[in-house]
Design goal:
about 80 residues, 2 helices, elongated
Length: about 80
């Protein structure tokens, strides 16, 4: 994945996410400038159940699945794709 995402590309992406649609341009610019673009590999975990997080993830490319681990069992897929689309 190309990690060079311009501020205007970030703002364009944010305006298509329902969570951010009520924000004005200056608010979107603040969010676009505070982020960090990360490249995660397939199968890599970005968070774990029960661990308090300090990040929010916007998936620019690819997909995410949510799994619930049940004691003494294989992971149960909760959602294959988490998406606005």
């Amino acid at each position: 994945m190309d990690l060079s995402v311009t501020p205007s590309e970030k703002i364009a992406f944010l305006t298509n996410v329902s969570l951010f649609q009520a924000l004005d341009q200056s608010q979107l610019e603040k969010i676009a400038n505070m982020d960090e673009v990360d490249d995660n590999s397939a199968g890599e975990y970005i968070c774990h159940e029960g661990v308090i997080g300090d990040s929010m993830y916007l998936i620019l490319e690819g997909s995410v699945s949510l799994e619930k681990v049940v004691w003494n069992s294989a992971p149960i897929v909760v959602a294959e794709t988490v998406s606005e689309r």
